[in-house]
Structure formats: structure tokens, C-alpha cells
Design goal:
It contains 18 helices and 15 strands. The protein has 450 residues and is an alpha/beta fold. The protein starts with 7 loop residues before the first strand and ends in a 6-residue tail after the last helix. Bound molecules: ligand FNR.
């Protein structure tokens, strides 16, 4: 069972705290790693899947096939799932889904962002401490793994101690305290004195947080621990910028960290967009250099990897995964997903006059030169046709395009998660009906959805 004494911890960070970064932190020396904050109702849209190719457990969004949370054996006893919630029952339903796959559950009570606060989550729970208490109590009473929460401080030590004492009574095993108030920003000084005041008066372990600006090397972590008198320390930005901060042996240079991170991103089939985001936050100002700009133009994992001499590594691994059955973004076959059951608005179009098939567009299977739309436009130009017209409809967060070409209409009946993908999907259908791509080729691209 996970404990919170003398631990150095990777703090929860949206989009940063996905599996590759968590494993990197553990391999460099972190004792515990938090997931990014996951919102309860979004998590509840997912289904648990064992991924035998990657040896991971995936929670797959049933509306679009994206991975909501991916974890693996290596982190099982060390990963804490952080939840954004304002509802004890929903929180418990998520906790029950992941109970056997993670080491602990943490409730985010420190996020000051509008999205959280308006939804009664994050720091709003500090203003509604009865609700905060109920959520924790419900979890503590019904799950077998430790439950914790992460808060910010109030203006005074006494008020902060008050809420911590109340939450501790719910039976939580530790509490993370970010030493800033809800209105303070990361550049404001951290109130180590208030964290210390609470830590000295409360019996459960307190995890000190907020010291990244002063933590430039491994030994600084212990200075922060001393200063706050806490059991453990949790790092966010210092780890986001250079994850090797967790190394006892000292910091590694940026390129080494990026390479170590990229290998994990490839090994665990991390999405190119998430991988890119994490590297952007390591490069920071260096995105303005020629290499940085080349990096910003990258769209695929292989393109990103090439910049750090890992292009071949990525290509070989992706080929191996493809041969084993992983295709592009699908970690489950799309037919296993429950379709959103949305209806396209046809207005003056008779849907029977629209050539349809169910295909999806998988970006990783195309390069910049052979995208379906580019292929279709090139063919149209060469053969003297007007270029196709695209009309895209959005229902909730999903998109479908009807393409008009040479007086005929084409669409994919698969709802895509953005407009660009929906247009590319419709172009694939058109290419098929023009005999410019075969069914076999579409199957090979993993685009056909049965
Ligand atoms: C955060 N933080 C945060 N906190 C949290 O409880 N859940 C979350 O999902 C996130 N997401 C997040 C993303 C990014 C990019 C940053 C920089 C921060 C806040 C974070 O965990 C921490 O409390 C603060 O950054 C202060 O700690 P440091 O950065 O001084 O170590």
C-alpha cells in the first residue's frame, strides 16, 4: 500500500502527466506520480480495455476512441489518479472503475480555472467544504485504496488549518497543499510559512507543493521540505521543464531528457499532439530557434522523433505495432465503440443521392503530400474538374462533411472529432468512388469501419 512519508512526487499536470512523462519521472527517481486531472463525467464515458500489444490498461472514450487514461504495471503501485469532481456518487463510480489499476485516488480541490470553479470543482470545493468532505468520505468508505486531496491555502494559517482538519476527518491518508491562495498566480511567492503551520499541527502526512521556482537541483527539493516541515514534496513545473530533477545523480541536459521522453512516447503509442505539447514545455524559449521551428511544424511522431535522431526507432516500432494490430489512433476497433447515434441534417439534400461509406481518417497513416484532400485536388486539377466543395456539420463535439464534386455528393457516415478530419474522411470516400483508392488500400490504412 502506498504511503506518503519522505516521498518525492510528480504533481498532477493537465496534458503533461500522461503515461510517458509519469514513467520518465519514475525512472529518474520520483517515488509517486500523479495523473493529470481527469474529469469524472468524461472518465465515465470510457471503458476499461486490456491492451495486449502495449501491455497497458486503457480507458477508452466510447464516443471517439481516444485514450482517457492509460496505465501499466510499472507504475501500478505508484500512480495516483487525480479526479476533478463535484459529486460524491460520480467520483465513486470512477474510483470503482480504476480501483484495481492505480495506487490511490486524489481529488483536485485547488484548480482555480473557470471551467472547474463554474462546475463546482477544484477550488470551489474549498468554499463548499461540506461537499468536499462528503466526496472524500464516500470514497474512503467504499474503496480499498488510499484517498487524498490537493488544496490551495486560504489567506490565513488558521483558516487553512481549519479546512485541513475537517478534510482529514474524512479519513484521507495525506493532503497536498499548494502554498498559494486561489487568486495567486504561479509567479507569486509561495507561502511556505502557512504550509508549515498546518504541517506542524496535523497528524496525516502533508505534501508540500508550489516550490518549483526555487527548485533548480535535486538538493533544493530537501530545502523546500525543511522549510515547509512537510512529510513529502510534490513538484509540477520543475518536472515539466526538466524531468531529470528527480535524479539523485543530478540534472541531465535537455536533449537527453527529450530523447528519453520520446522513446517512452513511442513505446506507449502516445498521441503526436500530446507528445508535442510535452516537448514544447521542455523547449520553452528554444521553440524560437531554427530547430524549434522545425519541431513546431511536425505533425507525426516520426517527424518529431527525426529531430532527435530517433526517426528510425519510431518507424520500426510503429511498423511493429501496426503488424501486431494497432492502427493509427484506434486502440480498439472502431466497431467496438458505441456510435454517438447522431443524425446528419440533410436540408435540401436527399441522403440517398449521397455516396456514403463508413471510413475514418487516421492522420498517422498519411504524410503531408498524400493527404486524401490533396490527392483529390491534384486529380481534379489534372483532369480539368473544379475543385471539390466541402460542407461540414457539427453536432455537439463531432463533425461530418458532405463533399460535392462534379455534381455528385459524398460523405463518410463516421462522425469525426474535428472538421479537418471530417473533410479528409469525405475525400477518402470520394477517392474510393472515383476508383482512385481501392477497398484493400482503405483496409490497409485502417480506415474502413465495419
Ligand atoms: C498544473 N497544476 C495542476 N494541479 C492539479 O491539482 N491538477 C492538475 O491537473 C494541474 N494541472 C497543471 C498543469 C500545468 C501545466 C501546471 C504547470 C500546473 C498545478 C500544479 O500541480 C501545482 O500545484 C503548481 O504548479 C505549483 O507547483 P510547482 O509548479 O511550483 O511545483
Amino acid at each position: 500500500m502506498i504511503t506518503y512519508e519522505n516521498k518525492i512526487i510528480l504533481a498532477p499536470m493537465v496534458r503533461i502527466g500522461t503515461l510517458p512523462m509519469r514513467l520518465l519521472a519514475l525512472r529518474y527517481g520520483a517515488d509517486i506520480v500523479y495523473s493529470e486531472e481527469l474529469i469524472d463525467w468524461k472518465f465515465l464515458r470510457s471503458k476499461r480495455k486490456q491492451n495486449d500489444i502495449l501491455n497497458t490498461i486503457d480507458f477508452v472514450d466510447q464516443t471517439d476512441g481516444t485514450i482517457v487514461f492509460r496505465t501499466c504495471d510499472e507504475e501500478k503501485d505508484k500512480v495516483v489518479l487525480q479526479l476533478g469532481t463535484c459529486d460524491p456518487d460520480r467520483a465513486l463510480r470512477v474510483a470503482k472503475l480504476v480501483e484495481n489499476d492505480v495506487a490511490a485516488i486524489d481529488i483536485n480541490m485547488g484548480c482555480p480555472k473557470e471551467f472547474s470553479v463554474k462546475g463546482g470543482m477544484g477550488v470551489a470545493l474549498m468554499e463548499n467544504s461540506d461537499k468536499a468532505f462528503d466526496i472524500l468520505k464516500k470514497l474512503v468508505e467504499n474503496v480499498t485504496i488510499p484517498v487524498t486531496c490537493k488544496i490551495r491555502i486560504f489567506e490565513t494559517p488558521e483558516e487553512t488549518l481549519n479546512i485541513v482538519s475537517k478534510l482529514a476527518k474524512a479519513g484521507i491518508k495525506a493532503i497536498g497543499i499548494h502554498g498559494r491562495t486561489r487568486n495567486e498566480r504561479p509567479q507569486h511567492p509561495v507561502h511556505t510559512d502557512i504550509i508549515r503551520y498546518v504541517a506542524e499541527r496535523i497528524s496525516i502526512p502533508v505534501i508540500a507543493n508550489g516550490g518549483s521556482k526555487e527548485i533548480e537541483k535535486y538538493s533544493d527539493i530537501f530545502k523546500f521540505k525543511e522549510l515547509t516541515g512537510c512529510s513529502s514534496v510534490m513538484l509540477a513545473r520543475a518536472a515539466e521543464w526538466n524531468c531529470s530533477i528527480f535524479r539523485k545523480e543530478g540534472l541531465l541536459d535537455m536533449d537527453t531528457v527529450i530523447k528519453d521522453y520520446l522513446k517512452l512516447a513511442v513505446d506507449f503509442d502516445n498521441s503526436p499532439s500530446n507528445t508535442k505539447y510535452c516537448i514544447q514545455n521542455i523547449l520553452r524559449d528554444l521553440q524560437e530557434t531554427p530547430r524549434g521551428r522545425r519541431f513546431l511544424d511536425c505533425q507525426t511522431l516520426e517527424q518529431i522523433c527525426s529531430i532527435w535522431d530517433l526517426g528510425e526507432y519510431c518507424k520500426d516500432k510503429q511498423l511493429m505495432y501496426q503488424n501486431m494490430g494497432i492502427q493509427g489512433r484506434w486502440q480498439v476497433t472502431p466497431s467496438e465503440l458505441e456510435p454517438p447515434n447522431k443524425k446528419i441534417k440533410t436540408n435540401d439534400i436527399n441522403l440517398e443521392d449521397v455516396a456514403q461509406m463508413k471510413v475514418c481518417f487516421i492522420r498517422a497513416n498519411f504524410n503531408d503530400l498524400n493527404l486524401p484532400k490533396s490527392q483529390l485536388h491534384a486529380w481534379a486539377g489534372k483532369n480539368g474538374y473544379k475543385i471539390p466543395q466541402y460542407e461540414t456539420q457539427q453536432v455537439e463535439k463531432l463533425f461530418r462533411t458532405i463533399l460535392t464534386f462534379d455534381g455528385k455528393k459524398y460523405t463518410s457516415s463516421f462522425w469525426e472529432k474535428n472538421k479537418k478530419f471530417a473533410e479528409q474522411g469525405a475525400a477518402l470516400v470520394c477517392l474510393f468512388y472515383l476508383n482512385l483508392i481501392t477497398e484493400q488500400e482503405l483496409i490497409k490504412l485502417g480506415s474502413i469501419i465495419k
